[in-house]
Amino acid sequence: MVSLLAGKSAVITGGVTCIGRAIALGYLRHGAAVTVNCLDDAKSEEHFESLKAEAPSGSRLSSIAGDIGKKSTGEAIVEAAINKHGSLDIFVANAGVSMFRDFLTLDEETLESHLHTNIRGTFWSTQAAARQMIKQGRGGSIIGISSISAHLGGAQQVHYTPTKAAVLSMMQSEACALGKYGIRCNALLHGTTRTQLAAGDLANAEKLAYLEKRTPLGRVGDPDDLAGPAVFLASDLSKYVTGAQLLVDGGLSISLQ
Q1: Which InterPro entries is this protein grouped with (predicted)?
Q2: What does the pLDDT read at residue 256?
Q3: Is residue 160 among the annotated active site residues?
């Protein structure tokens, strides 16, 4: 296999489980050094240890824990990547939360958690990454993990869908702000994917059958489905792609079934 990311250093927030983990493994297989951000708890440490066990032999993989919604955490993540791997070429803002809740009874804590992680976390971390890339003077790639929810409404997602629209909008505006530095900014919009956050919803056999029937490719997504597109956006294969939104949803968002 051709190593598309050899010599590159990448950071992935929320990188020890689900989509972030799949992207981390994809980057490692293509020769990148990877720093993952995760929560500061025992479960996250277990996930990181299992990620190390699954990574290709000789992989350059490190982790740093912290609350991604804090400005200081974004700065610390970038610093950790520089200290460990010497540079920062790719940054994936993946960390996010998603809970299905009734709009009319939504509590303040749930709304705040979505704004904190999905919006503030993406903003502060990508700002820190951009500053480092500018300092290095050789461009880079920033990728925001959005969702088809950026374009579609959901009765129990009134607090969630705007945050994913914000991630998409951030990548578009960052593409305008950072293009003069050779930094490309793009968004991946996934459909329903088998993650921890979607597990409860997909446990409903009737709902799963409906989604599978509605999706042209006939199944819901797996986290690994995002790895290839993330490698593409990180590599020189997409060297003239910025401000783009790449749908990775099996055709769900364009199907009327």
Answers
A1: NAD(P)-bd_dom_sf, SDR_fam
A2: 65
A3: yes
Is residue 45 helix, strand or coil? Answer: helix
Annotated active-site residue in 27, 59, 147, 164: 164
pLDDT of residue 206: 79
Sign, CA torsion 166/171/172/177: positive
Q: How far apart are CA 171 and CA 99, in angstroms?
A: 23
Chain-wide mean pLDDT for the chain? 94
Q: Is residue 87 annotated as a catalytic residue, yes or no?
A: no
For residue 199, the surrounding DSSP H or E stretch is helix 199-202
Q: What percent of the chain is helix, strand and coil (3-state, nearest 5)?
A: 50, 15, 35
Q: Exposed, middle or buried: residue 58 (CB in 10 Å: 0-12, 13-18, 19+)? A: exposed
Does residue 146 have an active-site annotation?
yes
CATH 3.60.21.10 fits 9-254, yes or no: no
Which one of 146, 147, 149, 235 is the catalytic residue?
Answer: 146
Share of the chain above pLDDT 70, in %: 96
* Residues in contact with 74: Cβ distance below 8 Å, sequence separation at least 6, in sequence order: 68, 121, 124, 125, 126, 127, 128, 129
Instruction: Work out the pLDDT band at 197, boundaries 50, 70, 90.
Output: low
Identify the active-site residue in 9, 27, 160, 235.
160
- CA 94/CA 96 separation, integer angstroms: 6
Are 69 and 163 contacting, i.e. CB atoms less than 8 angstroms apart? no
Percent of the chain with pLDDT over 90: 85
Higher per-residue confidence, 121 vs 210: 121
